[in-house]
Write a sequence for this structure.
């Protein structure tokens, strides 16, 4: 008896507290069972749904009486291959056809049913998706890329293209986002996977892995990026060759014939070679005109720019000997190099025969002694405007970027140009004597190096 009284007092206390929490007072709860399933107008006359789409059912279903307490819903499909319903009441249209959905509410088997018709979408369905071959890396300066233009969209129709909507997504939206039209916007360096999926059709999505990079061109000396003119000094070849040129920047430490050490750090200064200057590739003084160097010492004129001019073995003869030349650049610190570009001495008909058009080999070192091969057979960076030499042929003063794979850091970079590789001039038109000239010297006005960076 005392225990019963305690239970009653506890219940009264709980009810007193609960009144403020919107819990009904004693005697107001009706444990009425469900006696009718009610569909709203969306379901009452049957549901027509497009193939591949989904419908949430619970929001269209209710029960009577209104104060019934056990209103949990359960669903059955007469043909789950046409339309199936999850435990949460999400109907998915899987195949064109018809079926019946039965809805149960409560524990007493009270149910109602409605018909479902799955219809074809009002557009031509996609049967295949794939990204076309092309660039998988983009310069961050590109800004945006139309990925839909790179997407192949197939259909069953032989006369019409699929016009079913495509859904695009990016796996790394910090790096790049993509909108519903397939326009990819690049935000920062990194990688992402772009996926293109059919909105309705059950086809395998197309994916493509993309990387975004930035070109980093290294400074060769302070003020290099501002293009400040360098002062020309010296009245003799010795003074000219020994002047302080680097301002703490890069240095051309050595140049020589491969098989003749006597040619180390020398050129044929008795000849009037145009603008010959050992460090010209690094000095930022562009060639203004093609005027020959002043005086027999081979010094450049003060009004003109400079070029690194180095006589090669064999002179003008078109030799296939294994000899050649090399030069070494000291960058003063170790850094990754995976491209270079050049500025040529001029676009004059004679000078274009000594453009550096191929590099036999590039090596790297951190002690100027132990060398590792970075790249071989680099070409295509000094292109001309027509496939064969004509009066209209244009020889650009600036080359394109000569790219090669390298992620290791080196302080010293060695360029090797072998005779047998025909590293100078253009050789794809042997019937044209002018186009096939080899030239007797390698001429470079400016040399730049840098890297393709994928990280911030």
């Amino acid at each position: 008896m005392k225990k019963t009284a305690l239970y009653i007092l506890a219940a009264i206390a709980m009810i007193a507290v609960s009144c403020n929490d919107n819990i009904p007072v004693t005697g107001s709860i009706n444990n009425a069972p469900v006696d009718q399933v009610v569909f709203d107008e969306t379901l009452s006359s049957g549901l027509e749904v497009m193939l591949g789409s989904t419908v949430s059912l619970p929001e269209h279903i209710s029960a009577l009486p209104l104060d019934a307490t056990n209103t949990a819903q359960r669903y059955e499909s007469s043909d789950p291959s046409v339309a199936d319903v999850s435990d949460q009441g999400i109907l998915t249209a899987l195949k064109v056809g018809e079926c019946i959905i039965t809805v149960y509410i409560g524990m007493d088997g009270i149910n109602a049913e409605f018909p479902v018709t799955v219809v074809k979408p009002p557009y031509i369905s996609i049967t295949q998706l794939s990204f076309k071959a092309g660039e998988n890396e983009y310069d961050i300066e590109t800004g945006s890329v139309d990925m839909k233009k790179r997407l192949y969209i197939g259909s069953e129709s032989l006369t019409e293209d699929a016009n079913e909507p495509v859904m695009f997504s990016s796996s790394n939206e910090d790096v790049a986002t993509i909108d519903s039209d397939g326009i990819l916007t690049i935000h920062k360096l990194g990688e992402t996977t772009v996926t293109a999926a059919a909105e309705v059709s059950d086809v395998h999505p197309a994916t493509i892995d993309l990387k975004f990079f930035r070109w980093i061109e290294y400074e060769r000396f302070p003020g290099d990026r501002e293009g400040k003119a360098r002062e020309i000094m010296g009245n003799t070849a010795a003074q000219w060759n020994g002047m302080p040129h680097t301002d703490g920047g890069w240095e051309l430490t050595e140049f020589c014939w491969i098989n003749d050490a006597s040619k180390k750090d020398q050129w044929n200064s008795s000849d009037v070679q145009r603008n010959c200057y050992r460090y010209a590739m690094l000095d930022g003084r562009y060639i203004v005109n093609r005027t020959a160097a002043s005086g027999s010492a081979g010094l450049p004129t003060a009004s003109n720019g400079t070029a690194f001019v180095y006589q090669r073995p064999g002179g003008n003869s078109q030799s296939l000997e294994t000899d050649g030349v090399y030069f070494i650049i000291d960058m003063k610190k170790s850094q990754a190099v995976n491209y270079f570009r050049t500025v040529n001495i001029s676009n004059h008909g004679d000078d274009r025969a000594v453009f550096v058009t191929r590099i036999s080999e590039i090596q790297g070192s951190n002690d100027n002694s132990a060398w590792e091969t970075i790249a071989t057979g680099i070409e295509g960076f000094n292109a001309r405007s027509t496939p064969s030499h004509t009066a209209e042929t244009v020889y650009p003063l600036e080359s394109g970027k000569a790219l090669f794979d390298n992620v290791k850091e080196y302080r010293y970079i060695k360029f090797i140009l072998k005779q047998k590789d025909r590293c100078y001039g253009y050789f794809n038109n042997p019937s044209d004597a002018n186009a096939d000239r080899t030239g007797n010297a390698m001429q470079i006005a400016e040399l730049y190096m840098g890297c393709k960076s994928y990280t911030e």
Summary: The longest helix spans residues 2-18. Helices lie at 2-18, 41-44, 237-242. The longest strand covers residues 324-336. Residues 341 and 379 are 11 Å apart (CA to CA).
